[in-house]
């Protein structure tokens, strides 16, 4: 399985036909010190405390096109005013071209959100299901009122995504796993999850799929059902680890798993405590009687967990 973020970038780059005027204007401001200074001065004169710079599109950098267009639109009035002050200014954009850029930002926003979601480092990304949600967001975009050029780009994006079988099959496998998990849940009823929102969230599809089944009855009845399912489950063999079993089945028994954390951590004897007490006596002896309590705790922790 390849990099999903890289696949997203290829889908966008192959469908996007960016206006050459935009790149020309951005390049001019990036290369010309005079033009860049006048852009800053124009922003200062209009009450902007921290003036922004134009960003250059880089093909090897994900979402670079979106960020360039976003900054370009945010500085629309400043760009228009500054171009009128330059002696050798590049050709400015007309009203239709500015409208096209704003529409492209709307189209590219779901892709930027998806790329950021799958590029995280502090959470699990392999289990994120968003390919189908991204495709549905593009299909919703195709029903909105845009220029013909914008609709052409949207059609190319949808076509590129639908033609990538590996990406589509990957998402279908994830969706199938969710359906199988929902089928295993007892006493569930269907819920009305028809979306009336016009938002373009890439998470709408997965949130709708997860919310299709809602637990019925009271909390007491669900607890009784969970306990009954637990009693009907097979007895664990003597040589197996109960902690590992509960870790593997904590999603099947969400409420009982909370209780097991409180009860199974209790010790049957005081032998482990006596071992720690004996090690504490070896660490805190007559020659090391000035150790602070937090230092002793750290030494005991390292000593006990080193083996």
UniProtKB/TrEMBL annotation:
UniProt xrefs under Pfam families: Dimer_Tnp_hAT
Entry keyword Zinc-finger: yes
Subcellular location as annotated: Nucleus
InterPro entries associated with the record: HATC_C_dom (IPR008906), RNaseH-like_sf (IPR012337), ZnF_BED_domain_contain (IPR052035)
Domain called HAT C-terminal dimerisation: residue spans: 226-305
GO molecular function list: protein dimerization activity; zinc ion binding
Record key words, sorted: Metal-binding, Nucleus, Zinc, Zinc-finger
Organism: Macrosiphum euphorbiae
GO CC field: nucleus
UniProt key word Nucleus: yes
Descriptive protein name: HAT C-terminal dimerisation domain-containing protein
